[in-house]
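User: Assemble these into one structure.

Assistant: Restating your components, then the assembled model:
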Amino acid sequence: MTRPRPVDNGRVRVAVTGIGVVSPLGIGREELWRSVSAGRSGAGLITLFDTSDSPVRIACEADGFEPSDFMDRRVARRMDRYAQLAVAAGRLALADAGLSVDRDGEGIGTIIGNGGSGTISREEQHRVLMERGPDRVSPFAIPLSVANMGAGHVSIELGLRGPVTAVCTACAAGTDAVGTAADIIRRGDARAMLAGGADTLISPYFVAGFDAMRVLSHRNDDPAGAARPFDRDRDGFLVGEAGAVLVLEPLEDARARGAHVICEVAGYGASADAYHLTDPDPSGEPQARAVTAAIRDAGITPDEVDHVNAHGGASRPGDPAEVRLLQLALGEEAAARVAVSATKSMHGHCMGATGALEAAITGLALQEGVIPPTVNLHDLDPECVGVDHVANTARTADIRVAMSTSFGLGGHNAALVLTRDEEAA
Amino acid sequence: MTEPRVVVTGLGLVSCLGIGWRDAWAAALAGRSGAGPITRFDASEHGSRIACEVDGFAPEDFIERRALRRMDRVSQMAVAAGRLALDDARLSIDGEGDRAGAVIATGNGGSETFEEHNRALAERGADRASPLMVPVMIVNMSAGHVSMQLGLRGPTSCVVTACAAGNHGIGDAAAIIRRGAADVMLAGGAEAGITSYCMASLDATRALSRRNDAPERASRPFDAGRDGFVAAEGAGVLVLERLEHARERGAEIICEVRGYGASSDAHHLTEPDPSGRWQVAAMRMALERGGIDPSEVDYVNAHGTSTAAGDPVEIGAIRALLGDERAARVMVSSTKSMHGHAMGAAGGVESVLTALAIREGQVPPTINLDELDPACGGVDHVANERRAAPVRVALSNSFGFGGHNAVLAFSALEDE
């Protein structure tokens, strides 16, 4: 295994050369981009489990996902739905990057973040235990239900033999996965990484648990209008599901093989609130430290940030804290100019996959010069004033530097700085 | 700019061999088993009814009673191990929290919480669901609680790679210090999966020993009579520190984290690639990154779970890495023979013991190694009795379901 040649003050630049997504907004990056740039909602009634007993009956499901399009039917049966989403997204990403897995996949790894998958299989198998006894639990219960098996299946199905892990930092996992993988590329421990997240927590346990925390929207009669970050009438998020994978490789290598560069991962920052079990620190200070760390890591100045894909969980205390953290990290003047959108208004909160899905969307925004909107933002909450909200319709803009931020239950804060590929522009 | 060096300055352990590293180390050197009949739940209907439980763990010794109620046992153990490690390092986080973080790995997260609430959901319905069922259960919460309880405000993460997770956690944490994002990281793993569902699902994979009548002799890595692993609970956390930071505060340096190697078999859901090729790749990567020649390795704390398929593959990989001549002289032991397989915590627990082996010049044994499986020969097994021997360079191996391989290379601190 060769370590990549360092460039730029000894630092390897990291390119995104492929995007694979299976999401409520479509399968594949083209369909995803058509949906986000049109401001389409991926919300609908829950079909993945029987909700007759549930006060919440809406979510953002990856409609039309057919696992057998991406893997052998027999293999798919031994995977939880989240792992199927991971494998499909990984395969799409690899194809999009035009990257071939040769040399036995040596030096190509994957990090698939998630927040609690495969909960669907675990809940089912635990019911088997309760109803029929320990000796009736499936021999596949563990491989079906553990959180590392998304990454494991991606490595097995695609033949990747480099570093393979699952970063699980709740709602920040997808972002932490991309940042951690970028560091693996920088330090020369892999020549390419498939980085992202796959999660589906549209399950009886998680929907009931989230609802008991009062964080889910109850707008069952208007799913498309339910997720409304920064809006005065927001009443919580919609659980989404997705697989989202980005192919990262050293920029030099990508250029050398003539790959299309979508954007660069220029910086990554992480911090912890160390504040509360479920609530974010309302001051925005710990979250701002993650943003500042990412900006420093990228070697840019705060006023260079053109666009932020916000966490935007449509929670009462969370959304205003996001505006405050941007004011703290960028300064009030720069914050007022930065174009902010919360694409969760369209694809829902895809949990451990959401950071990767949002990073993918942010990368495409840089490539296309179009900022996707926050939909359902009709009546801006006065507490969320202070940034340039891209409300309801996409905006054409010459953006060069963008950030994607994620904040997870437990106080995990993660931020990425993505930059436009100047050779493509 | 040269890359910062990373050293170990504190050790925290919550294990069946003891709470705090001193008790556990004494037990490990004495070759004591921590296994026994399961008492955490009624296992009478289970095929495997033995485990390594942590007896006498009193979480209120480490955590305020009010906070305890919102923590699964796995998080309680993680916080206890973290606090012990910080005390051992004589490190006060006050005012330095922004430059201190944690990576706490786990395999399952809050297993007891999940099972309790999933049962309640089945029996009482969704409208009686608890607001704690998600936050107390999810896998990242051990890291979250460690950060909250100890005031760590830097990068805080959780890595899940089944039985390799602890090692990935330590390797990832060392990388965070090397890239300059923190000066101090608490790194390791925690697991509290001696629960009905976890044990039933492990047993269903046929990975567990069923030597129910002789728990202390059930975990027997490399022995011809082995029949699977003994599940364990616990937590192992190390304080990792930037070398200069440790020197400036006059800390005692236990050993150095030299290298971290990670690879994947991409072979099978639960079985290792029988060629061992990718285990070799991970070990080689750990040595290369640490600038260590294979001939320098004195001791390998083996993954050695006591399964039929896994043990010979690992010994074969060590032989392939070192060459037969050198391999015959490298000391190998699997401390899982004593503390069981703590899954996501295993790498943390074993890294603590490996660090101590370097500092103390004592190698803890593989117990129950009465009749060496010929397929596991070719290395210098430290069988049944501890051995006093200088250990300058040691590897700690962990390999997980799903094909995750993670190897850490530690050495005594040597001046540049």
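Chain A is about 35% helix and 20% strand.
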